[in-house]
Amino acid sequence: MTRSQPWVWQLAAYGLPDHTTLSPAAWGPRFDELFRHGLAGLLADAAANHAATLSDAEARQLHDRLDREAHLAVRLEAELIRLEPVLERHDAVVIKGAALAHGAYDAPHLRPFSDLDLLVTSSSITQVLRDLERFGYQRPRPDPAPGYAARVAKATALTHPSGLIVDLHRTLATGTAAHRVDVEYLVANRISIVAGRVQLPAPSWPAHLIEACLHAVIGDGLGRALSVRDVAQIAALPQLNAAEAVRLARSWQVDAPVSLALRAARELLGASLPLELNRAAGDAVGQSELDPIDARAASAQRRLDDVRHSGDLRSRATLVRSLVAPTPRFLRWTYGPGPLPRLYLRRWSDLRRRTADAGARS
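-> structure tokens emitted (362 positions)
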């Protein structure tokens, strides 16, 4: 079992086949937790179908939360129309939020999202960043080394003065998985998802299942119920080619985290998986129990793996520089003002501590 409460996983499973009832609960004291897990829409559906009972005050609070989520979603979807020239010019695909809300779930309110996740090939990153800056987006976090966004980073966050956020991805995960996923194949085999007035270019459903699995395990460390629900939701789609998903996971050598995510969907949510995915889940390796992964230690360990296994020499050099000799601008952004020698000493001290933590937990 995970450290999340059983009611979290029961609510996260609501609406899946054979999961249409909830244990009686006082929901108000649990709102902060269920909002953190992204489950407001599922609770609203359960209440509408008399599977959950809310007081008037709880219903108003839930309604206010859903209104805020819906308002943000509409703004983000409108932004996709404005950014359509950038998406088309660079063969970008939309992953996660908007694509899943409209393509995988029965209703968009069941899958909240707070930003736009775009994926392009590494060769396009620099130009897409320039294009987004022309649309008013800015990068609040400087790169720790020149070329970091295009060669090393999983994603680069950009913010707009209106408050909207775009995460520009060059791959689907951090660590060794980042160099194994074939992004060129992924964008070349994209599909189209209808989202209101928008036609979203998105990964094929087998590729999107891989993305959801990597995000649930590597990104969220099995610590957010909505990420596991995404896996179960895509796995239940009639249009999913499950055998192709298994083939991609093996071809990209990410079958271990994919198997773990599928097992989490099956064991934590009681999801019924297609035969091919059920077999893959049975091969899950890694954690003996489905506990949330310590994100800080995992991040440090993945950075060590990156140094050992990242693709080409130029990428490795960029990564090493970002770790041990980041730019002065990055150091001051991270630690604040001060003499550079002192800031570098602080950086190296942090690296030693994080490396020791990762080694102790590996």
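The CA atoms of residues 42 and 48 lie 10 Å apart.
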